Amino acid sequence: MSRRIEFAFCAVLTACTSGCLWAAEPVATIRTPQLSGIGRPATPAEVKAWDIDVRPDFKGLPPGSGTVAHGQDVWEGKCASCHGTFGESNEVFTPIIGGTTKDDIETGHVLALTNNSAPQRTTMMKLSSVSTLWDYIRRAMPWNAPKSLSNDDVYAVVAYLLNMADVLPDNATLSDKNIAEAQARLPNRNGMTRDHGLWDVNGKADVKSVACMKNCPTGDKVTSSLPDAAKGANGNPADQTRPFGETRAVNLAAADTPPGADRAASTQAAGAVKPDASSLATANGCMACHGVANKIVGPSFKSVAEKYRGRSDRENYLSGKIKAGGAGAWGAVRMPPQAQLSDADVKALAEWVLAQ
User: Fold this and answer.
1) Tell me: the pLDDT tens digits for 334-348?
2) Model pTM score
3) Cα 349–352–354 angle (5° rounding)?
């Protein structure tokens, strides 16, 4: 008997002027060759465990409710360390709240998306469906413990976010019964459009476009950059990118530094970076949570060095902390153990951190 893998839909992500739109297009069934003893049909219970998506019409939304007040408690305990107390933080992720007005709530169009009056686009500016917010939080948050929130917790967190965006009042309770009322006040609920190139083939998505390959521009270079308002949000970007390869970040400490030399110039000028230890910190994920001079999820390395500067056993103490991981010394977010590192590598990392 042949096994059959059926793809019911092919998700096509299309761009829009003020938000995003997912469109579904049916595609053909894909059959595998005849195989024996490999795989089995998913059980109804297994399918049910994964089938938790919530559609824009709120089909799939589980019963439950949560108040703004409870959402604030959950937020401060599990969300604020990355997103800020009011969802405004730009430290770890881009801001969730900001850039919308009461006029936007009335029209369903976020004016700042068209006149570029906001320094950067926040989640609430782009969001066109409350179900997207509810579904994402349920699946992926908190970052260090996804799917650990109860349904009532998710309702409460969504209520708190909508309250901060002036969609819900302070005393509101959000539930599966009234979530459509919140949708009707979402600032960008009318912000989606199909008036762009991907939808110009008889009103359907153009998924078979052929590049003309004529009169193509030359001399262009593909790059990416942050808006000026966000460039320094985490300190100097050049101090936070890997010290090898072609990827380089702008050096805010020396704007005229030649391209490709940003990282080396900034770190060598600081006189506190050992290339080997810096590479270790990057390769093992340390730089994802710690900045050299600024707090991200965990404390900055400079703060760690300052805290332990008076300890005579600081190198051995910090080496032990790096190796074993833990939580509590700097907050509730747990640092994973680095048990894969050799004692020599741990010692090099500890010396580098303490030299900041």
Assistant:
1) 788 887 888 888 888
2) 0.54
3) 110
